[in-house]
Amino acid sequence: MAELTLSVENEEGKTLASVSGQDEVWMIYNPQYQPGDQICVSCGEMDAFLIVQLDDAMSPALIYCKEGKISYPVPFGEDIKVFSERAFAGERHYLHVRTARQEEIAARKNLALNPWAAHKFDGAFPFASANVETRGEAVFAARNAIDGCKANASHGKWPYTSWGINRDPKAALRVDFGRLVEIDEAVFYLRADFPHDAWWKEGTLHFSDGTQVTVKLEKTAAGQNFSFPPKRVEWVVLDSLVKADDPSPFPALTQLELWGKEYGLFNQG
User: Fold this and answer.
1) pLDDT at 268
2) What are phi and psi of 120, to 5 degrees?
3) Per-residue confidence (pLDDT) for residue 122, from 0 to 100
4) pLDDT at 265
5) Are 164 and 133 spatial neighbours (Cβ–Cβ below 8 Å)?
6) Of the chain's two ends, which shows fewer C-beta atoms within 10 Å, N or C?
7) Cα 56 to Cα 94: distance, rounded to the nearest angstrom
8) What is the end-to-end Cα distance of the chain in Å, rounded?
9) Strands (E), the chain
10) Within the chain, which residues score under 70 in pLDDT?
11) Three-class SS of residue 95?
């Protein structure tokens, strides 16, 4: 059993509310959040798999806590634009965290999915980063490509967030898992706000095991699936993006899914 602690802290590090329990905790936090507030999760052990729901307007999701703790900044200003207008708003917030069941850990799943991914690393995996994000705006940040939201008929604030590359042909997106996993399928959802958007006709996935897979992409709003021999990896980089011959200079990625299962110390069979 794991000792879980869920708390809200202000920007000075003062604890405003806290609950603890074995394997599962929940909190009703009544005040409005203030800039600088953080939601903190501690599980008292390393290498923890948790089901996390830090706001009732968003779905719970499985995350991996390598160091056994998360410090999640409550989003304000530019950062709140990547979430539903109901998220983190008003008073009376419901938060819930539990340890993941073995069957949830072992299941084949989208290992890149993390709707709780912050713009800067907060202790939770998977985590997405990039060498370029359009104008540094949250609505074009790398984290948007793994948040699970596939709405790609427009661009801008939620639900039409995306990874924007600021027209940089050397743009690269990296997904870190924090541990060894085995993946065998990628699914691309290109942003499809045509004719505002262009698209990529090709991209390459580079894996931490030294291998790579080049995919051929099409102009479509639908998911594009690519299977490959299983790769045992800790991270994946998408780069070598080749823009199609289109008048628009704005290709972008709405979502990248990476399907597979746990491996190594976390292999559940």
Assistant:
1) 47
2) -110, 150
3) 87
4) 57
5) yes
6) C
7) 6
8) 21
9) 3-9, 15-22, 24-29, 38-42, 48-53, 61-65, 69-73, 93-99, 109-110, 124-125, 127-130, 163-164, 173-190, 200-207, 212-216, 224-243, 252-262
10) 264-269
11) strand
